[in-house]
Design a protein that fits this description.
The complex is a heterodimer of chains A (620) and B (233). Chain A is mostly helical. Chain A is built from 25 helices and 8 strands. In chain A, 72% of the residues lie in helices and 3% in strands. The chains are: A mainly alpha (620), B alpha/beta (233).
Chain lengths: 620, 233
């Protein structure tokens, strides 16, 4: 490696940092003001790239048409952002973080299908930027002119946004709103237009970030989720809401990628997440972030959990009886579907235990599902094909993983905790995806079948019912045990809980491990029910599935996860056969969040309270 | 100027205000007295629109503002100074004032930062400091100055004397009297009866979200049983 090569690599890192910064600064700006973690930001980036590509192709070649297209694409994306804000997000600003996140993920699904329908599914390769298609020799290394232009673009945008925020009345109002929204309103400022304008700017920046990538990268339908994970990392490292922090973090990650690719080509993303974990331990609010002044937990006053009443217990018994009867009533297909539902009910219940009961919102719960699943698969393959041993080791691996990641995560709270759990899941995902020799990589691991005695569909169903259904019951017991009370106390007020002498951190850590354990059990069974395992089980969409199930069922009811898993799997099974199923699922999610924020079980429970059939919250 | 008519309000299911009715006349300083938890701050928040009214009616300058969002009420000429001060911690004094700036609503000349620095001389030398760097008294002055930048016709002052040094409390009373002399209408909540006596024309005593006494300050002083029961003096 010559000095010239290292410098060239350094410049490559800077140029990719520019685009990353554009996306991350928009995300950070939007979060700072609206407190919404916007998954759809990656979709805005992807839309910007597609729009710019087609505008450039459509217009005659030239410097002016090229940059005109880039700017037009950014502006159109800004307008799309405004539409999304006005139609959907404005209605959920006061909803809990989980609802907002899931709603923005619904937007991701809709946008994926919309872009697919408009522009087609094949990868697109943009032509070089006119006027900047040559190379410059620096220390004898060829550096594309376009990269140098991008390196300049980053600081230009940084300075422009900084001036806008610090030297205009609009910027002063925006900064005031990030600190105290209500006070800004009490001083006569209409927040609605303030939020909308911030959304315009943030979305346009994402669109610009996508548009300038056209000459550098292929344009495809996977761009949205790949950029959003990186943008989250940048925003969290830089400090949520800090534009300068986002710039520093983008440069850090850009360089890390540029040099990491020389050392460990496959797992630069792991490197990025490790850096993020270290930064968050040293500075829990990122490099330039500030402690979150606003407490969110108080948004919704939660009623105390009660033990199920007699009618509640009777209903519970009826449900158990119905579940036992399944193999006698349904055909093979129905049994397989029911097996699936029970597995995911445990997965959702474990996530619910973490979120609803302990107040730790996880965006990456799939990590422990996948850990259990992969560990079981590996034990099965390498230790003599024993399902029983695999079912034992899988959950243990998940607990170990949850203890390790949890040690970092439970020290944080709110969005930062959520981001770190997402990071943990991405690490697991990239290991399963990249470590092909062991995990089979993208091809996954096949032929993981149950032992002879459990191979018939009804027997395997009963095995699932005992392990997963039993898991759900144990989780319920834990919720009603003193340990569960401590976690709920910590959820509602960490200060008060600690002041009565409880080591909350240790309890939260243990709670995290419990949630990981049960997700791992679900994962272990899942491998044997499918006979195979793929990296998808650790990916972001799987974690979101869990969130959607909890949400469908309602965060504040114990029956929620079961209802949610059932409805979600049946829904998925039905609509995944349709064209544009993503758009349909996304729309359902969005409508649900906007119309029935307490979820299905919560919705019926509210009805029951209204008609005097139930008192307070009973844990059906 | 401001009228509350049988207002019920609170947080979620907890009802704090119970059929509360009161009137504030133009140019008067009205004190809302009561113990901790009597509903003083809730009244203020409900009037400005930070809390929804469950039932009843709020009118301001003859306009029914019961269902108005907070910013609309403020734009009509109502200023709100919260009890916990809530300056924008990362914004400078100048920027805090800028956030409060609204166009004037009547013929009177609008407030300028220069005039406000005359009223609150301490703020002048700290104008480039961030809100979080100010002392408690300075923060309280800044919140009042910030509200005045909106050129309000009525100010809701939530516990202006709370947690301030005696010298600053006197300064605060002087300021309120000056504002009153300039024709400002003020509704202030207080636990400090002495402070209320200094500045207020009229008083409402509330307990559990309902009015238990209303009348002039002198009338209140002639009713020791009211003072003893509801204010524990």
């Amino acid at each position: 490696m010559t000095a010239g090569f290292i410098f060239a690599q350094f410049l490559t890192g800077l140029s990719s940092a520019s685009s990353l910064f554009l996306v991350a600064s928009g995300l950070s700006l939007i979060f700072g003001v609206t407190r919404i973690v916007n998954f759809a930001h990656g979709s805005f980036y992807m839309l910007g790239a597609y729009l710019a590509y087609h505008l450039i192709e459509w217009l005659p070649t030239g410097i002016l048409p090229f940059w005109g297209s880039v700017i037009c694409a950014a502006l159109i994306v800004g307008v799309v952002g405004v539409i999304v804000e006005v139609v959907i997000l404005r209605r959920i600003y006061h909803a809990p973080e989980l609802f907002q996140l899931v709603a923005t993920f619904g937007i991701v699904l809709v946008m994926q299908d919309a872009i697919f329908a408009l522009f087609g599914g094949e990868d697109k390769f943009g032509s070089r930027a006119p006027g900047l298609n040559g190379v410059v020799r620096i220390f004898d290394e060829p550096i594309p002119q376009y990269d140098l232009a991008l390196i300049a673009l980053g600081p230009v945008v940084l300075i422009s946004v900084w001036l806008l925020l610090n030297k205009t009345r609009w910027g002063t109002l925006v900064r005031a709103a990030t600190q105290d929204r209500d006070m800004v309103a009490a001083l006569g400022v209409n927040q609605a237009w303030l939020f909308t304008s911030v959304f315009f700017l943030g979305s346009a920046l994402a669109g610009l970030g996508g548009a300038v990538q056209v000459p550098r990268e292929s344009i495809n339908l996977l761009m949205d989720l790949s950029i959003i994970a990186e943008a989250f990392v940048v925003v969290v490292i830089g400090g949520m809401g800090s534009i300068v922090g986002a710039f520093l973090a983008a440069v850090l990650i850009g360089e890390l990628n540029a040099f990491g690719i020389l050392i460990m080509p496959q797992i630069t993303i792991v490197l990025a997440f490790l850096v993020m974990a270290v930064v968050l331990i040293v500075r829990p609010w990122g490099l330039l972030g500030k402690p979150d002044a606003i407490q969110h937990a108080g948004d919704q006053i939660d009623m105390p959990l009660r033990e199920a009443s007699l009618p509640g217990k009777l209903v519970g018994l009826l449900v158990i009886a119905a579940l036992v009867a399944v193999p006698y009533v349904l055909d093979d297909f129905g049994i397989v579907l029911a097996t699936d539902i029970i597995i995911f009910a445990l997965f959702a219940a474990s996530l619910h235990f973490l979120m609803g009961n302990s107040g730790m919102v996880s965006f990456g719960h799939a990590a422990y599902f996948a850990l259990g699943a992969y560990a079981s698969a590996l034990v099965f393959r390498h230790l003599g094909g024993s399902m029983e041993l695999a079912l034992l080791i899988g959950p243990i691996a998940a607990v170990v993983g949850a203890l390790v990641f949890g040690w970092f995560c439970v020290r944080l709270s709110g969005v930062y905790l959520a981001m770190l759990t997402l990071a943990a899941a991405q690490i697991i995902w990239s290991i399963t995806y990249s470590w092909g020799d062991v995990t089979g990589g993208d091809d996954g691991m096949l032929g993981i079948w149950p032992s002879e005695w459990a191979r018939s569909k009804p027997v395997f169903y009963y095995l699932t019912l005992v392990l997963c259904g039993g898991g759900v019951l144990i989780l319920r017991k834990i919720t009603h045990a003193p340990f569960g009370y401590v976690l709920r106390g910590g959820r509602d007020s960490s200060v008060r809980t600690e002041s009565i002498g409880i080591h909350l951190l240790r309890h939260r850590h243990f709670g995290f491990a419990v949630a990981g354990l049960f997700a791992g059990i679900a994962g272990s069974i899942y491998v044997f029910s499918k006979g195979s395992i793929f990296p998808d089980e650790a990916a972001i969409p799987r974690s979101i599935d869990g969130l959607v199930m909890v949400l469908l069922g309602g965060v504040h009811t114990l029956a929620g996860p079961l209802v949610g898993a059932g409805v979600f799997r049946l829904l998925e099974d039905w609509i995944s056969r349709l064209d544009f199923w993503r758009a349909i699922l996304g729309t359902i999610i969005i409508v649900l969040v906007v119309v029935a924020p307490q979820g299905i079980a919560g919705f019926f429970h509210t009805l029951a309270i209204r008609f005097g059939l139930a008192k307070g919250r009973e844990s059906l | 100027m401001l009228e509350l008519n049988s207002v019920n309000a609170g947080y979620g299911k907890a009802r704090i205000l119970n059929q509360l009715s009161l009137t504030v006349e133009r140019g008067k300083v009205v004190a809302l007295l009561g113990r901790n938890g009597a509903g003083k701050s809730t009244t203020m928040k409900t009037v400005i629109g930070l809390l929804p009214v469950t039932s009843g009616q709020v009118t301001f300058q003859g306009e029914d503002i019961t269902r108005y969002p907070c910013h609309r009420t403020a734009q009509l000429g109502m200023g709100y100074v919260p009890e916990d001060r809530r300056v924008f911690p990362d914004l400078t004094v100048d920027e805090n004032l800028e956030v409060g700036r609204q166009p004037p609503r009547d013929a009177r000349p609008p407030w300028t930062p220069a005039q406000l620095f005359e009223l609150f001389p301490n703020l002048l030398e700290r104008r480039h400091n961030q809100g979080k760097q100010l002392s408690g008294g300075e923060q309280q002055m800044l919140t009042i100055a910030r509200t005045l930048m909106g050129n309000p016709q009525l100010i809701l002052l939530d516990e202006p004397s709370e947690g301030l040094a005696p010298r600053i409390v006197e300064q605060m009373a002087d300021t309120i009297i000056k504002l009153k002399e300039s024709g400002m209408t003020i509704l202030l909540s207080e636990q400090n009866l002495h402070f209320a006596r200094l500045v207020a024309d009229q008083a409402y005593v509330i307990e559990k979200g309902s009015v238990r006494f209303s009348g002039s300050i002198t009338e209140l002083d002639s009713k020791p049983e009211v003072l003893a029961t509801y204010l524990a003096v």
